[in-house]
């Protein structure tokens, strides 16, 4: 059965067709072309004092960021456990080990107190972590003030995985611009898409230059191919950048729409006992890429999976939250610090449809299905 209401579906109502046509007509569809430059400069302008390099995925942006932070074999890197595997996989690509840390209950992102305990514990074991990977899940900013303080106190750089938080703000500053390096994703279901793509962000011009060099096979500026170090084929192509630019021009309207969708869910569900949301602190402004809820089964009588199945029967897609990485078979030999919060979030959470073109009637229907579930259990 085809889905009538997908979780998060892209909308192409801007200049996508025009720009891709222009890219094709120019003959430049690979890693050289004017749309790459336009995309990078438009994104950089949004980030104020920061610059960016456009890459072919968020995962390669994280991988390159870790190369630039000097992470290598035998190192330890702290990473939020409650996230997508791509936040941590590059640690393993480089021969380093992830050390996973639990979340805190308001933003659902890395818990500053447990982070500090983790650093102290690793230092006492004789190994100071090389970096801290912080994620802004579903667009919700992490507790950056506290996390930055810890980073400064122990002199450990932050790598900000803002893959889901393009356009989110904290203290009126863009997510992705707090860490030594930040990363965005423009994959198909993110708030803006270039088909596949990512960006690496920094306020250090030399570092951005180096990222550009390394992401294009570290080719020296000579008439023949000459290489002084191992590079990567990570650059975004011009065709992807043409779509990305058109999407970037619509980012503010997409954020307004996704925030309105979140506000509608909150008001439609405000008297629904047992349903709660991520907390947006007063310093935070989430892009609300996805609206996620927690279901207290004791109060609602239905679990996240029961609701997921009932929605699916009506052609409505919803999705589990990220399964904590410390519980993933691929990471079963890694260290974990914290309690059971991230596991509880996974066990009780569900992401609701949040596409830009979701109508208010769709949202009412979704909430109606939740009421039907509730009456089934308490009739
Ligand atoms: C999507 C995502 C990534 C990876 O981005 P890709 O562009 O798909 O490689 C990394 N981290 C998080 C938290 C993501 O949601």
TrEMBL record:
Residues with the N6-(pyridoxal phosphate)lysine modification: 190
Nucleotidyltransferase as UniProt keyword: no
GO biological process: polysaccharide biosynthetic process
Cross-referenced CDD domains: AHBA_syn
Key words, A-Z: Pyridoxal phosphate
GO terms assigned for molecular function: pyridoxal phosphate binding; transaminase activity
Top-level division of the source organism's lineage: Bacteria
PANTHER family named among the record's database cross-references: DTDP-4-AMINO-4,6-DIDEOXYGALACTOSE TRANSAMINASE, TRANSAMINASE
Family stated for the protein in its record: Belongs to the DegT/DnrJ/EryC1 family.
Protein name: dTDP-4-amino-4,6-dideoxygalactose transaminase
Source organism of the structure: Algoriphagus aquimarinus
């Amino acid at each position: 059965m085809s889905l009538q209401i997908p979780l998060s579906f892209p909308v192409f109502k801007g200049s996508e067709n025009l720009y891709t046509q222009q890219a094709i007509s120019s003959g430049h569809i690979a890693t050289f072309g004017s749309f790459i430059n336009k995309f990078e400069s438009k994104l950089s302008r949004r980030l104020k004092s920061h610059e960016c390099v456009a890459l072919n995925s968020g995962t390669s942006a994280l991988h390159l960021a870790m190369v630039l932070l000097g992470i290598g074999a035998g190192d330890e890197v702290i990473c939020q456990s409650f996230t997508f595997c791509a936040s941590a996989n590059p640690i393993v690509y480089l021969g380093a080990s992830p050390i996973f840390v639990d979340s805190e209950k308001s933003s659902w992102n890395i818990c500053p107190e447990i982070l500090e305990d983790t650093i102290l514990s690793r230092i006492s074991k004789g190994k100071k972590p090389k970096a801290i990977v912080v994620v802004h899940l579903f667009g919700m900013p992490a507790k950056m003030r506290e996390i930055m303080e810890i980073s400064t106190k122990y002199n450990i750089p932050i790598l900000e995985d803002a893959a889901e938080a393009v356009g989110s703000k904290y203290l009126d500053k863009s997510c992705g611009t707090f860490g030594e390096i930040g990363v965005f994703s423009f994959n198909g279901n993110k708030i803006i898409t270039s088909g596949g793509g990512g960006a690496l962000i920094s306020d250090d011009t030399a570092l951005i230059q180096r990222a550009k060099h390394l992401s294009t096979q570290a080719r020296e500026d000579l008439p023949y191919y000459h290489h002084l170090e191992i590079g990567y084929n990570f650059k975004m192509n011009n065709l992807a950048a043409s779509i990305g630019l058109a999407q970037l021009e619509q980012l503010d309207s997409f954020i307004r729409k996704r925030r309105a969708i979140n506000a509608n869910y909150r008001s439609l569900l405000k008297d629904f006992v047992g349903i709660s949301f991520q907390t947006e602190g007063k310093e935070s402004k989430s892009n609300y890429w996805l609206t996620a809820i927690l279901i207290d089964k004791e109060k609602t009588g239905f679990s996240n999976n029961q609701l997921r199945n009932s929605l699916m029967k009506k052609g409505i897609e919803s999705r589990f939250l990220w399964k904590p990485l410390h519980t993933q078979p691929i990471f079963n030999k890694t260290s974990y610090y914290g309690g059971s919060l991230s596991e509880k979030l996974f066990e009780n959470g569900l992401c609701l449809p949040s596409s830009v073109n979701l109508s208010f009637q769709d949202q009412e229907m979704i909430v109606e299905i939740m009421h039907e579930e509730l009456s089934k259990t308490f009739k």
